[in-house]
Amino acid sequence: MNAPHQIARKLRVATTSLSGCFGCHMSLLDIDERLLELAHLVEFDRSPITDIKHCGPCDIGLVEGGVCNAENVHVLRELRENCKVLVALGACAVNGGLPAQRNNLDINQCLSQVYRNADGVVQVPNDPELPLLLDKVYPINEIVRVDYFLPGCPPSGDTIWKFLTDLLTGRTPRIEHPLLKFD
Amino acid sequence: MSDYNTSGFDSANMFSIDGRRIPFKPGQTILQAALEAGVYIPHLCHHPDLKPHGSCKLCTVTVNGRNGSACTARALPGLEVENDTPALNDRRRVLLQMLFVEGDHFCPGCEKSGNCQLQALAYDLEMVAPHFRHFFPKRTVDASHPDIWLDLNRCIMCELCVRASRDIDGKNVFMLAGRGANSQVVVNSPTGLLKDSALTADDAAAQICPVGAILHKRVGYSVPIGQRQFDDATIGHQVEYLARRHIPIKPVAVDAPKMPEKEGV
Ligand code: SF4
Ligand code: SF4
Ligand code: FES
């Protein structure tokens, strides 16, 4: 089973969720038993799967979610610096997605609506630990250079599998109908 | 305009698209002849029931070496038209990307998703990302009408609603106003609101929007994912399929005949 599939060095993959819902990571798990095949080809660096906090040198970085605060910018830049290939995984990373629906609203108004308690008192959390919100939610390619885009909310397990196997085996990834979906 | 009688073709009235011979009737545009022959040329602002408009430029083809809109250019004997080429498709993809960033096209939250012509073209031309900086516009959403709502954040300014209201419904409910980036569809009513206009749910103008800008209320997401118009086959395949069977092609119509699943085209 292992010999013909074994490659000299396993590719290192980092994954992260910025301003996303983890749906894309769930979809990655949705490749089901093919995860075992994937484990033959790659090992995970920074990822919710490993709980490693900082990214080391990697071959592929998969980024879920858009960029909504200063910490997202930081994490994204770290991934970009360390990954040879950076992939925008899912609608939020590709175009801001659901979080970006706040982009044409006034951010102060948003916060005061959300943090208004039953008595009408507004208490927006204000702690130096909390990352600073950006004025807008940005797709990741508006912050760093992105090599590949995989749209979908989330992209299906099959789409992710097709993309990853293309990439891991040295083909130019190609996602076409019916795997190419924006919703 | 779609009920052409193919018996009138003259052997001299032929031109070629990507090397394939296409018959036409005098007066037809390149796009009309192509669709009738089952050749798909991507398009957004064309509709068989309406006069050509030539605004979206998705149908740009190369005619005897020069670029032009297939929906406005007349078919003439001997023309050599290039359509499905990497260079033209690249440009079409760029046009689509510009349309996507100019509006607020967040498909997972849009009721038109799966039935949207803009999205379907993006799939067909394998556009994976909008590429350009997003405008994130803030435009009017008019939910005043009892049956129809209008979200101009998704409008691509194809003027299909304008033309349908004027030429089919005879009501002139919609118009394009403003210049450049500030252009937008406006509603002809004393208040500017849809509820005070003459628009009714069965108007052609209420059905024709190729994107999710004019939508019917209380029908959103009624068709499950997997059964929507463009889930089974790309828009290009559907248009070809319908054309070959001489079914009038109205891919944006709510009642468009659906292509049977997975049938060879
Ligand atoms: S109008 Fe079409 S492209 Fe725009 S958000 Fe809706 S489904 Fe997507
Ligand atoms: S509302 Fe729809 S039909 Fe009217 S111009 Fe905009 S996109 Fe076209
Ligand atoms: S279909 Fe020809 S320009 Fe829009």
Description:
The complex is a heterodimer of chains A (183) and B (265). Chain A has 183 residues and is α/β, with parallel strands linked by helices. Helices cover 29% and strands 20% of the residues of chain A. Chain A contains six helices and seven strands. Chain B is of the alpha+beta class and 265 residues long. Chain B has six helices and ten strands, in the order E-E-H-E-E-E-H-H-E-E-H-E-E-H-E-H. A five-stranded mixed β-sheet of chain B has the order 2-1-5-3-4, with no helix packed on it. Chain B has a three-stranded antiparallel β-sheet with strand order 6-7-10, with no helix packed on it. A two-stranded antiparallel sheet of chain B has the order 8-9. The longest helix of chain B has 17 residues. At the A-B interface, helix 4 and strand 7 of A face helix 3 of B.
Strand order of the largest sheet of chain A: 2-1-3-5-7
Indicate the percent of residues in helices of chain B: 10-25%
Alpha-beta content class of chain B: alpha+beta
* Series of secondary-structure elements of chain B, N-terminal to C-terminal: EEHEEEHHEEHEEHEH
Strand content of chain B: 5-15%
Please give a handful of descriptors for the protein shown.
heterodimer, A: 183 residues, 5-stranded parallel sheet, 6 helices, 7 strands, elongated, B: alpha+beta, 14% strand, globular, binds iron/sulfur cluster, binds FE2/S2 (inorganic) cluster
